[in-house]
């Protein structure tokens, strides 16, 4: 049985994301985006009888995990479930926010969980931008705190 269980509270599971733009990237496509996506089970409590819960698992949860496993096999994602928890994590490679949205909406359990999506900035871009931020802040300090 999977670690994702309908009808019980679920800890968040994560799909990571960031933009990959350097030519040195061999794992992910150049110019693609990666996204941090968290999801939590929407707990129906005792409103769903056990037999219906089993049907949901068979008809939505398992097929969703099969799609996610397919993304991993195709190189579009990496990840899995958290051992002993009802959640997991993936790093998803998408060319745009729209592509990620199409991918997520393919998941049969898409409507059964609460999703949060955040694009991440690659470390390479941060490394390049931080010196510029510092230089700008120093200029502002020298100008009496006003932007030049």
Q: Secondary-structure map with pairings?
A:
Blueprint: E1 13-16, E2 19-20, E3 32-41, H1 50-74, E4 77-81, E5 88-94, H2 97-105, E6 113-119, H3 123-142
Parallel strand pairs: 1-5
Antiparallel strand pairs: 1-3, 2-3, 3-5, 3-6, 4-5
Shape, principal axes of CA atoms = elongated
Radius of gyration: 20 Å
- CATH top level assignment: Alpha Beta
Compute the number of structural domains. 1
End-to-end Cα distance, whole Å, is: 62 Å
- CATH superfamily name? Dimeric alpha+beta barrel
H and E string: EEEHEEHEH
Count the helices. How many? 3
Q: Could you say which structural class the secondary elements and strand pairing correspond to?
A: alpha+beta
- Sequence stretches where pLDDT stays below 50 over 5 or more residues: 1-28
- Oligomeric status of the shown chains? single chain
Strand content: 15-25%
CATH architecture: 2-Layer Sandwich
């Amino acid at each position: 049985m999977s670690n994702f269980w309908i009808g019980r509270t679920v800890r968040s599971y994560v799909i990571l994301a960031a933009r990959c733009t350097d030519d040195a990237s061999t794992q992910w496509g150049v110019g693609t985006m990666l996204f941090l996506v968290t999801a939590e089970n929407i707990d129906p409590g005792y409103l769903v009888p056990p037999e219906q819960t089993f049907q949901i698992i068979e008809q939505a949860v398992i097929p969703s995990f099969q799609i996610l496993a397919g993304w991993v096999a195709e190189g579009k994602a990496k990840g899995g479930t958290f051992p002993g928890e009802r959640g997991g994590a993936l790093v998803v490679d998408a060319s745009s926010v729209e592509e990620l949205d199409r991918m997520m909406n393919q998941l049969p359990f898409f409507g059964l969980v609460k999703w949060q999506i955040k694009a991440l900035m690659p470390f390479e871009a941060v490394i390049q931008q931080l010196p510029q931020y510092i230089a700008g802040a120093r200029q502002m300090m020298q100008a009496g705190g006003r932007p030049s």
